[in-house]
Structures are given as C-alpha cells and as structure tokens.
Amino acid sequence: MSKGKRLISTVTSESTVHLGIEEFEVPNPGPDEVLVAVEASPINPSDLGLLLAGADVSTVSKSENGVVLSLPDGAVDGLMGRLDRPMPVGNEGAGVVVDAGTGEEAQALQGQVVAALAGGMYATHRLVKARDCLVLEEGTEALDAASCFVNPLTALGMTETMGLEGHSALIHTAAASNLGQMLNRICIDDGIALVNVVRREEHVELLRSQGATHITNSSSPDFRSDLVDAIAKTGATIGFDAVGGGDLTTELLHAMEVAASSSGGEYSRYGSTTHKQLYIYGGLDRGPTLLRRNYGMAWGVAGWLLPNFLAKIGPQRSTELRRRVAAELTTTFASSYSDTLSLESVLDMDRMNEYSQMSTQGKSLVCPQL
User: Fold this and answer.
1) DSSP per residue over 197-264, as a string?
2) What average pLDDT does the chain have?
3) How far apart are CA 186 and CA 171, in angstroms?
C-alpha cells in the first residue's frame, strides 16, 4: 500500500489545540467506494471551527509534530466530545478518482474529476462513497470545483427555505463574501428581491458592480433608515445572518417590523401580525447574540445548518440542487481564492494569521498534492 498525508486537529484536556500532518495507509475502495486524489479543498468558516476549535491564532507556537494553540478559559468545556481525539479536517473538496470499487456506480467514476462533501478533505487521498460524489461536467478542473457544496448549497438553501416558509424576499448579512456574491447572482437569475447587508463602502461598490439593487452598509450613520427603506421596497420578511454576535439580529428584526408597521393597518401594542424570521448560520462575531425586543411578537430566531436543511428537503431535491451547481459552476457558483496552500503551509504561523481572518477578498485553498 502507498502512503498518504492528511491534516489532523486535536483538542487536548490541557486546553490546547494541536495541529499536525500524519501519514496513513491509502486504503483500497470497497465495492461502492472510490478513492479520490484530492487536488483542492477550501478553508470555509466551518472548517476553521474544526481546525482551530476557537483557539486564538496569536497563541500559536511550534511543537514537535506541528503547531500548538491555546484555547480561551472554559472553551474546552464545550469540546468534550472531541477531547484527545485526532480529527481530520476539510469539509469539501475536489479531485480525480484514481481507484474505484467493483460496483457499477463506482466503476463509472474511474478517472473522472469529482467533488465531495465528505470531511477529512485536507488529505492527499480520500475514500468516498460513489453515491456521494458530484460528477462534474466535462472539462471542469478540480480547482474550479473545490467549493461545490458548502457555499453553493447554502446559498440555494436560503432561497429554498424562503419559498418553503412562504416568504417572497430575503435579507443577507456579510453579503460581499463568496457566498453572498453567489446568493446575489442566484436572486438576479431567479427574480428574487434581496437586501444585501455589508460592512464597508467598497463592499457596496463590489455588489453594485455585480448587479445588486438593494445594498445597505452597517457602518453608515444612515444604516437603520436605509435598511428599513430596502425592506419596505422588497417586502423581505426572512433574513440569514452570518455574523451571529452583537445586536445585528435586533437591528434586522426591528427594521422588518418598522417596514411592516408602516404599511398601515390598525395599531396593536403587540406589533404587526407579519411574521419575521431570522436564521443565524454563521459566527463571524463569537460574542453573545443580543436581542432587544422592540419588534413586536410575530418573530422567530433560529439556527440554520446545511446538513439539516438537506435532510429536510430529501435526496431528490438535494440532487436537483447539486445538478444546478454542477451546471453553473463557473458562472453563478464561481468562487475566488486569495491564497493557495500546501498541507504543510496550513501550519505556517504567518499563513495561519492570514487565512483565519475570513476576509471578503477571498478565501484560501488547500491543495494537498503540492
């Protein structure tokens, strides 16, 4: 058997996180499995959650087998399920099928470029069930297909959730991100009104250049009035928040309530009867989520997670969404990357400081074959 390499993250009982690269025996695929030589895998915020486990990157130092970081006081209490268990990292990625099991479905993938949401993708090789592979259109490069799942399906999941719950327009925060730009393109293509919330004026210009109509800047002194105006024009009653912490949740719900109340109707001390729903799907701000209840009584705040959503809509609809992603991979669902990393350079302390910032300018791409 040949040897492969993969990136491992281990949370210890001493409140540290150890990152290292381990060798492993490259396995032979079972009848319904394929062996993928992973060429590209993005660093998404969800990957950073597993990789760093909330550790402060400023505490990183070299260790005998990699690097070690310190966790904040009390953080290990919420990580007991993974304590002292080495965990492979990397939610999604793409590569070439270099070996296939004897089953017909697996054999059909031999030599093809595929993408997978399989976990452990920061590795030279990954064993994947054939049924879990997204077969890409002819000529698609693995680098273009690295981000086939998390961002595209999350963006599609937002518009799907909107429709399933009876809303007609939506709000999205951190809207200049790769995911936000995808969502903007989806909404333009599908005729959905979208309110984009960003943090900087250059992000406003970026989205405007891509055809976005309603863009509000949370750092602007006119943010509140601009947000209410955009919501009133679009009729948005559902929002998806990537920030999580702070009082942005309250700002969004309050703006929806003000817009709903301004449409007329009899006054009620309980607020409008329009239901306002906000889903928190990210954690760019790790602080507490602050709710000041100034938005009536018809509202809901909940978490939103891609795997849970896919389970809810079922395999048939999930497959339909994946096919759309494959067909529009270089257009609607195109991703940009600011940096390319080998497995070894993921452990470089200077590079870690850069890719952990989750910058709008582009995420980093891990290329295990480098």
Assistant:
1) EESSHHHHHHHHHTT--EEEETTSTTHHHHHHHHHHHHT--EEEES-EEETHHHHHHHHHHHHHHTT-
2) 94
3) 13
Report the distance separating Cα 211 and Cα 206, nearest Å: 9
Map residue 97 onto helix, strand or coil.
Answer: strand
Neighbouring-strand partners of residue 127: 35
The pLDDT of residue 270 is above 80: yes
Give the pLDDT band of residue 359 (cuts 50, 70, 90).
Answer: low
CA distance 150 to 49: 14
Residue 204 — very low, low, confident or very high, per pLDDT cuts 50/70/90? very high
Going by C-alpha positions, the residue among 303, 317, 328, 319 that lies closest to residue 188 is 328
Distance CA 245, CA 287 (A): 5
Instruction: Give Cα separations from 30 to 27, 37, 114, 186 (angstroms).
Output: 9, 16, 18, 38
Identify whether the C-beta of residue 48 lies closer than 8 Å to the C-beta of residue 84: no
Q: CB-based contacts of 82: which residues, under 8 Å, 6+ apart?
A: 11, 53
* Residues 6+ away with beta carbon under 8 Å from 140: 113, 326, 329, 330
d(CA 296, CA 159): 25
Query: Is 325:144 a contact under the CB 8 Å cutoff?
Result: no
Residue 269: exposed, middle, or buried by beta-carbon count in 10 A (0-12, 13-18, 19+)? exposed
Distance between CA atoms of residues 196 and 170, nearest Å:
9
pLDDT digits (tens, 9 = 90+) for 23-37: 999 999 999 999 999
Q: What are phi and psi of 295, to 5 degrees?
A: -135, 35
